């Protein structure tokens, strides 16, 4: 298919000398360093952004704290906050194609996916969370305090915004996950500093500009760009950051949790996964193959909940393997701006190298691999998709998070073996079960160790469905009606009369 034409507004945005977004305006960074933003389809530099210094981060935190302490947002009537956030969703809808193109150009994913999940998903999640602004409730409590004799008490709780929140964002869904990190904090009345990934910073900068246009007061939504071990660490260590809301890799999540523990800053962590699918002998093979294709290869497998391990009961193994093999060997590879390409480049040269090295190691260890089509000529961070059949657990890609278009398929003798092997991982983000048996659909999910279990589906999310990890996949849940709890403190008020 012909490449999607880059809009003039997108070209104009890319050409800007991006600064930091602090207190409602573009601010030149104190630091001189610039970070390149690459187009993964070509390897060309398409923009540069600031590599914020600790001094820059301090300026952003000061702006956020000033706005928080001044009460310009947290004390605003909730219905007014809700209206402003709904207006932000409308502006994202107005600029949806600009945001989608920016996302494909900086991240590499298909423009179709950018339209549906990045700019489309951003609108849906902003609207959902905007509505929560007006649903913050406390409780009135009956108490039995005995002293002094004869005294009576009325007690109640209220929820207050936690303070200044740092939202730290990964590169796989920069706009959608950016919304998940920033918007619940805003809905709760917090002031925020967003730190997008240094690889994919552009859409968060655009979102901050839209937030000001929507009426979010200056200083309430700030963006600092920069490296994780620079701007990211400075944010996490800053004494005026009350809460860190992080999505990213497990090792970085652990180090952030350690930092937060030193000053008991609040922290929520959405981390990595090595997500299994269990296919029982009574499953619908067509549904399994199409469902797992999406679950394993969407966004080139760069999805935290992606299905990367499939355990199939023996009677169905050959048919599922043949179906997935047919898919993997025929998927077309091309740039994200080609809406017809089924596999697009990975996000960066480093990610390409990492995934390729997992595949090379597996080949060296003699793994049985089915490889997809050759990568296109002309540069770009492509990796051929791969299906690995019955790998030994010693092969690293069988147990570690690869975050690429790689799926393992393993024959098991029984449903119990599948369950044991599926749970045998330090991760616990998501899992799926494929079956036509109501009995199995009811009995298995409670025994599967993951924060989300899909039956006859995988990787489908909704703002009303809590999402997050067990074990080393994280702490806390995003989405759902309790989403704002992580951005509020409960205060008890006890009145004697
Ligand atoms: P990453 O951990 O390398 O980086 C994430 C963010 O943290 C980036 O903004 C980075 O600059 C910043 N960062 C890095 N080091 C830091 C430090 N020491 N202090 C503060 N900030 C720091 O992750 P990534 O490579 O961008 O994203 C891929 C990972 O994210 C995968 O492991 C994936 O599973 C995970 N992920 C999880 C979810 C989920 O909801 N559970 C969703 C998407 C991605």
TrEMBL record:
Pfam families found in the cross-reference section: Aldedh (PF00171)
All copies of domain Aldehyde dehydrogenase, residue ranges: 26-493
Keywords, sorted A to Z: Oxidoreductase
SUPFAM superfamilies for the chain: ALDH-like
Superkingdom in the source lineage: Bacteria
Active site residues per record: 270
GO molecular function, one term: oxidoreductase activity, acting on the aldehyde or oxo group of donors, NAD or NADP as acceptor
InterPro entries (UniProt xref): Ald_DH/histidinol_DH, Ald_DH_C, Ald_DH_CS_CYS, Ald_DH_CS_GLU, Ald_DH_N, Aldehyde_DH_dom
Family indicated by similarity: Belongs to the aldehyde dehydrogenase family.
Protein name per its UniProtKB record: Aldehyde dehydrogenase family protein
Organism: Komagataeibacter xylinus (Gluconacetobacter xylinus)
């Amino acid at each position: 298919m012909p490449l999607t034409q880059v809009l003039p507004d997108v070209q104009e945005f890319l050409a800007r000398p991006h600064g930091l977004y602090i207190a409602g305006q573009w601010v030149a960074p104190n630091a001189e360093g610039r970070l390149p933003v690459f187009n993964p389809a070509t390897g060309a530099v398409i923009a540069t952004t600031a590599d914020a210094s600790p001094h820059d981060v301090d300026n952003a935190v000061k702006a956020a704290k000033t706005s928080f302490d001044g009460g310009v947002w947290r004390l605003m009537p909730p219905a007014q906050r809700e209206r402003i956030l709904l207006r932000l969703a409308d502006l994202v809808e107005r600029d949806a194609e600009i945001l989608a193109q920016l996302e494909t150009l900086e991240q590499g994913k298909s423009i179709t996916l950018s339209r549906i999940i990045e700019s489309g998903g951003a609108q849906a999640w902003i609207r959902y969370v905007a509505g929560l602004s007006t649903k913050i409730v406390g409780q009135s409590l009956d108490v039995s305090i005995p002293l002094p004799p004869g005294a009576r008490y009325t007690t109640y709780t209220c929820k207050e915004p936690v303070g200044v929140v740092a939202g730290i964002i990964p590169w796989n869904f920069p706009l959608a996950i950016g919304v998940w990190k920033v918007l619940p904090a805003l809905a709760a009345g917090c002031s925020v500093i967003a730190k997008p990934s240094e690889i994919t910073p552009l859409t968060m900068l655009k979102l901050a500009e839209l937030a000001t246009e929507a009426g979010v007061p200056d200083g309430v939504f700030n963006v600092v760009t920069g490296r994780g071990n620079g701007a990211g660490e400075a944010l996490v260590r800053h004494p005026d950051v009350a809460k860190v809301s992080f999505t990213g890799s497990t090792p970085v999540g652990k180090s952030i949790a350690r930092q937060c523990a030193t000053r008991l800053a609040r922290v929520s962590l959405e981390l990595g996964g090595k997500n299994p699918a269990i296919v029982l002998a009574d499953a619908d093979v067509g549904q399994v193959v199409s469902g797992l294709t999406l679950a394993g290869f969407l966004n080139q497998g760069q999805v935290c909940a992606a299905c990367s391990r499939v355990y199939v009961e023996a009677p169905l193994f050959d048919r599922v393997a043949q179906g997935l093999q047919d898919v993997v060997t025929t998927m077309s590879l091309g740039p994200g701006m080609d809406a017809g390409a089924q596999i697009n480049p990975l996000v960066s040269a480093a990610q390409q190298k990492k995934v390729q090295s997992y595949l090379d190691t597996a080949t060296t260890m003699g793994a049985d691999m089915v490889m997809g089509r050759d990568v296109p000529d002309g540069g770009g961070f492509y990796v051929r998709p791969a299906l690995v059949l019955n790998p030994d657990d010693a092969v690293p890609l069988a147990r570690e998070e690869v975050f690429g278009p790689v799926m393992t398929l393993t024959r098991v003798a029984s449903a119990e073996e599948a369950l044991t092997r599926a749970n045998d991982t330090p991760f616990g983000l998501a899992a799926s079960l494929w079956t036509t048996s109501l009995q199995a659909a009811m009995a298995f999910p409670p025994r599967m160790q993951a924060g989300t279990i899909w039956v006859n589906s995988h990787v489908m999310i909704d703002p009303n469905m809590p999402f997050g990890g067990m074990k080393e996949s994280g702490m806390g849940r995003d989405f759902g009606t309790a989403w704002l709890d992580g951005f509020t403190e409960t205060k008890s008020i006890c009145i004697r009369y």
